Amino acid sequence: MSSNRQAAASSPWRAPILFAVLAILFVLEGTVRNGLFSGSWNTALAILNMGLISAITALGVNMQWGYAGLFNTGVVGFLAIGGLAPVLVSLPPVEGAWAAGGPRLIGSLLVGLGTLALAKIVYTRTRRAWAVALVLIAGFVAYRWLFDPAVSAIEANDSARTGNIGGLGLPVLLSWLVGGAFAAAAAWAVGKVALGLRSDYLAIATLGIGEIIVAVLRNEDWLARGVKNVASIPRPVPYEIDLQQNPAFVDFAGRWGLGVAEASGIWVKLCYLSLFLVVLLAIILLAQLALKSPWGRMMRAIRDNEVAAEAMGKDVTARHLQIFVLGSAVIGIAGAMMITLDGLMAPNGYNPLRYTFLIWVMVIVGGSGNNWGSVLGAILIWFLWIKVEVWGPNLIGVLVGPLPDGDIKAHLLGSAPHMRFIAMGLVLLLVLRFAPRGLVPEK
Amino acid sequence: MDILNALVAFLNFVFIPAAAYGAQLALGALGVTLIYGILRFSNFAHGDTMAFGTAITILTTWGMQSLGISLGPLPTALLALPVGIAATALLVLGTDRAVYRFYRVQKAAPIIFVMASVGVMFVMNGLTRLVIGVDEQRFDDGARFIIAVRDFREWSGLAEGLALRSTQALTVVVTAIVCAALFWFLNRTKAGKAMRAYSDNEDLALLSGIDPERVVRLTWIIAAALMTIAGVLYGLDKSFRPFNYFQILLPIFAAAIVGGLGSPVGAIAGGFLVAFSEVAVTYPWVKVAGYLFPGWEPGGLLQLLGTEYKFAVSFVILIVVLLFRPTGLFRGKSV
Amino acid sequence: MIQSQPQTTQPFLSAQAMRGGYGKADILHGCTLTVDQGQIAVIVGPNGAGKSTAMKAVFGMLPLREGRVTLGGQDITALSPQERVRKGMGFVPQTHNIFPTMTVEENLEMGAYIRDDDVRQTLAQVYDLFPAVAEKRRQAAGELSGGQRQQVAVGRALMTRPQLLMLDEPTAGVSPIVMDELFDRIIEVARTGISILMVEQNARQALEIADIGYVLVQGANRYTDTGEALLADPEVRRTFLGG
Description:
- The structure holds three protein chains of three kinds.
- By secondary structure, chain A is mainly α.
- Chain A has 19 helices and no strands.
- Helix content of chain B is 73%, strand content 1%.
- Chain B is built from 14 helices and two strands.
- Chain B has helices at 2-39, 46-66, 77-106, 110-132, 149-156, 166-188, 190-200, 202-207, 212-238, 242-247, 249-259, 264-282, 286-292, 310-324; strands spanning 145-147, 164-165.
- A two-stranded antiparallel sheet of chain B has the order 1-2.
- Chains in contact: A-B, B-C.
- Chain A: InterPro entries: ABC_transp_permease, LivM-like.
């Protein structure tokens, strides 16, 4: 068994063949119309685009897990905080919001951060709990005194349409970097506390920060309108409706023999696709270069034998913090890209099963420690995740076809969508056990 | 009078809900801490296993109700509980056989166990959805209140009312019984002592002739009972929604870590600490303050944090413990 | 059964020509150890000589490539450590040899885990042997001093009423006074007819109480003699006992 795996791992054709299989799946999805595939290029490209974003997320997770063995269970939170960036960067400023309470709001946030910093200084200088508590209480009161009226004023400002602080009106592509920076900052705070302790602690702490970030997005209406959602986030690519009204494009679509509605959808998706590919390839390139550098060798040495690396004078915790922040930044970039693709910030959509643990399935299936493996695993698992939603009921429909109509048949049909959770869990467990190095193992 | 009113408001809105919630967290944290002590990993499937056990119990409850079986003033779910526990025990034993045992033999790193538990979490989540769906379910029957607000007002003549729901009282009583039984088992029986010995020093337990697989099986069965009871009590108290059981994982972990992973006493203390902090921080104190300081207009709700952020409380407690005392209050396993 | 075999030709424990190690490289290269009933046998030697490894091999914690181990005339080479405990062997590891959060009494009870009969008499014997820990029977073993912890560890191993007690550096990390006290207790144990096999860093003091001493070098016997004779041997003194 293990010798087989070894042999397969050494085959240079393994990854290209798997990617070719993946490509065939997408071509089938785009061209063949039957019970398995939709036969629509629009659908195929939509799956692929989201697959690429998942791939970037998986790359971030793979940096943390594959390079350093860090288990981040708050992926959903880092995606969400990255998704905040397009809202704050690219939306046009909300009229009156800044005047209503902007400076006061910024002031309150600074007071909040300042309180934490001061508490830290007081603690290191005096080591007295009561002094720290005093600082924290005073700081909290000051923070709330500044924060509450500012928030009420901003949220009262045209609350039916906006009620949030608005954005800076900058290009949306810039927000992708900002999203990375947001996630990096959150990761630094968590990592600073939870790294260097027992390995499960990081998993638990990140689970917490993930839930809290999503809760903040849901409830802080001044920030991104909470569950009222922010729609119409500017796009970096043309709008379908503009294309459809552009005679040159109509002409172009006609030459390909496509309806103009379909053609415009495909065109927009191809534009996104190329943007995402550029980001993905850039990140892979940087990651591969980093991995081959002395820094990357050190990271792997630490992962493979923490004790020995520590004995050689490497500051393991500091390296872990570095890689944790970097990986989270990549996840944040993916989060910003996702919101840009959707054009919509809807905090209720951030479900940890879908955005944390499914990403983990992707990384493990693809091959932890291998960047191309993560990309392959991400796109493949995403494709299956979407298609199983269709295939499951179809399959059960075929299976229960002979049964008479009734409660049991209805229940079985209705339960089909839940099957994919079981299926994904089983895939994760089976790969972890029987092929722990994944589809494309680390070299 | 006003002091009494303030006290009643405090009992009604803070103390009683927090005590019930704390008892539920304590049972959950006990399960986490036992599994950590014996199997040495943080079980991420804990919440979803609780949900599964509760779902089976609910289905059994419905079956009993349709047969006309009831427990009078007590919820029928108590009668259905053994069925839920048995089903959950079978499930976790099967999981251990199919998943965790392999890694135990391999002596895999703890983080691999954690990851496997994530896979198990997915499967359990799907199973729960399969058997009961994703919607909210209420399954409490029997008497709703031990003390109703109106009765209390008439009896005491106070402006403030006090309610004690039967599910709240039941939660605390059942938790007390379960904890007493667990501690009796761990401290007085040979099998329980063997579990503690295994948790303390695995190699020496082996040398003493303790069968590790037997200890592990016993641990899963006890954990299954704790999980199902915690899940059913939580569901009776707050209604059953599978997703809530995933979210409760964070406060449960926080409780277990605050107490010191591997320490059963710590888990109970941690459960109540987390619950009381959560309720106290998210409760709007303006009413209590109004009774205590008549004439004071605070101009706000005196709520430190919105209820939406109750998980932040667990998180902050977790962070403070990790920063200052990573082994927890009761000195659990070393870092 | 034991009596049926002449003691002179068949020692109680006999480990003959043991070869083996953890990975591909052997650590033991033909190591032989024997202990007669009620004897104290001591293994000494430089660091890395394979002393602890030899103990583990005798106890079945190390797979042997060659050689065989017999106890009371019975071949136990293929048995697991747990099975050897049932055959009458007791083992006290060098470190992590107690259950720290359990009380002293519970530690001893766990030592007797495999026994189904009444253990109170054995418990009383152990408390007689170690009066200091008897006073602390309700206290967590992890809170005791180093010497007392070693006593608990030895007591735990005695709870199965072993015929052979194996001690891996019982005096590591304890003060000289406590060491003497421990050695006295070990002699007392041996007087009750229990054979003792132990590894010791404090070679000189250990050989003083040894009926038989083994000097191990690179996984093989270099010198084997009575403790007294080894102490008197100038070559042994110069090389292994520091003059």
